[in-house]
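User: Predict the structure for this protein chain, please.
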Amino acid sequence: MTQHRSRIAGIGTYLPTRIMTNADMSALVDTSDEWIRERTGIAQRHIAADDEYTSDLAVEASRAALAHAGLGTENIDLIIVATATPDLTFPATATIVQHKLGIHHGAAFDVHAVCSGFLYALAVADNFIKAGQATNALVIGAETFSRILDWTDRTTCVLFGDGAGAMVLSAGGEGEGLIKTHLRSDGQFCDLLYVDGGPSRTKTVGHLRMQGNQVFRHAVGKIAGSMEELAGMAGVPISDIDWFVPHQANQRILEGVAKKLAIPVEKVISTVGRHGNTSAASIPLAFDAAVQDGRIKRGDLVLMEALGGGFTWGAALARY
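Assistant: Here is the predicted structure, written as structure tokens:
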């Protein structure tokens, strides 16, 4: 069977208009701008309006990605939404996005791997394209984490925000596209980062809970290990990679991974200060920002990485 390489044909993002600054946070919980910046690097986050859902954010990001790719909705035959905050328990948010985009063909489904979700969705779409089962896939990371935060818990509510990012993966391309993906998970760590509600167990949505110090320690080690393993599988030295686009969880994690692998900080794309941790949306948000400002250019080698609740983690290497 002929395998088709998946190239990144377009990328687009969306952030809700409402901005919540660190000063705004200090009116809700015992915190300060200095406390938040020093520990996380976050200055602000975007919060979805009451009538604005995960699917709405995803649709806006998708339209921007399609415009960037120069494609219409009629060209899309696969939609995958990575989200931990779906519109409804079911149907899949991807089908709601499909409907809102006016698409009535192809397939649409969700992937749930929390902050690693976008990498998981990217790998799934890549395999569909390689198998010849899709030609143009819309891969979306979209979250409304503000809906599952405990706004009295300063250790978590200051970290997260809402947003969406989308990539169009297309079959074809000479010397560009996804080179390798590497995905991992280990459920023994689920109690370090989780939501304490769910239809089966509690019949509620629940709130996000996290043991921050433990998550930090695992994140640096597991992410760095995945990046090294992926680079080895691809036969590409870490030093040859042009840009690193990490999940935007915490500036200290970004710096910790860079230090562990001796990566120059100027090669690491960081946007966490502008929008906080947007879970599955954060990698495309950071990627798009670096494309828009001219840092990431066609032909550049880009490594994306993340760790999320579960734990799930992984990395993806692409030539943009």
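The first helix runs from residue 22 to 26.
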